[in-house]
Amino acid sequence: xxxxSTGKLIFFLKLFLIFAIIIILIIAGFWIMSKDKPALIGTTxxxxxxxxxxxxxxxxxxxxxxxxxxxxEQRKTDYGIANGVDIIVxxxxxxxxxxxxVPMQRIIEKIRLxxxxxxxxxxxxxxxVSQYKIETFGIYIVKxxxxxxxxxxxxxxxYFDHKGISLAPTSDEPNQSGYxxxxxxxxxxxxxxxSIYNIKENSLDVNLSEIHPLNKLVVxxxxxxxxxxxxxxxxxxxxxxxxxETLWVPSE
Length: 252
What we know:
The structure is a single chain. By secondary structure, this protein is of the alpha+beta class. It folds into 2 domains: 1-37; 50-248, no CATH class. The chain contains 8 helices and 10 strands. The strands form 3 sheets. The chain has a 5-stranded antiparallel beta sheet. It has a 3-stranded mixed beta sheet with strand order 1-3-4. Strands 9-10 form a two-stranded antiparallel sheet. Strand 3 (94-97) and strand 4 form a beta hairpin. The N and C termini lie far apart (122 Å). Mean pLDDT is 75; it is low at 37-52 and 118-130.
């Protein structure tokens, strides 16, 4: 074989070998990249949403779900209220209103941050729930035309109705001298200890004038609020004093 032909053959063999190596490297690169990609949604590697693990109180189903309706009625009966709140939820449960689902612990965290408490937001949800004792919260879903004052008054009226005490519709209004009534002072104080939560924006809110259905919630810490009103003797309600921050309830 002539030397020139032999040289061409060797050249083409080398060229083929180079192309083969390049193709192998490309294939190996794609294989390595596919190994490093995160698992797609729906595979067993995806961790479930922690909200799913919590008992869910679905406000949308209360009217048609007999067991859920009975649970809410029993919880309201335990506190002696009927109309002051729409649902009663525990701190280890999740709440669904409309299309939005939120763990109660997320709402509690916002409230604690507002009050200056330290919250470890980087720990898991289950650890956050177990970090505190189980608390109970009354939830009122704000409707069009509501005012925070009227919401609180209805809550207080419902409570006193259970005690056999009927609050007059004008009992929250100032007296003839222009001074706040005892009921009015309780309601004013309630504005400081009750929270408004915007479920769509995941934030605490103070503005009830912009109403969107199933959007804003008034959140009552049932232990805290009942610790207050259980200590009130209605016969001495007009002796209550309020200085803008502290409510002074007359002793026995």
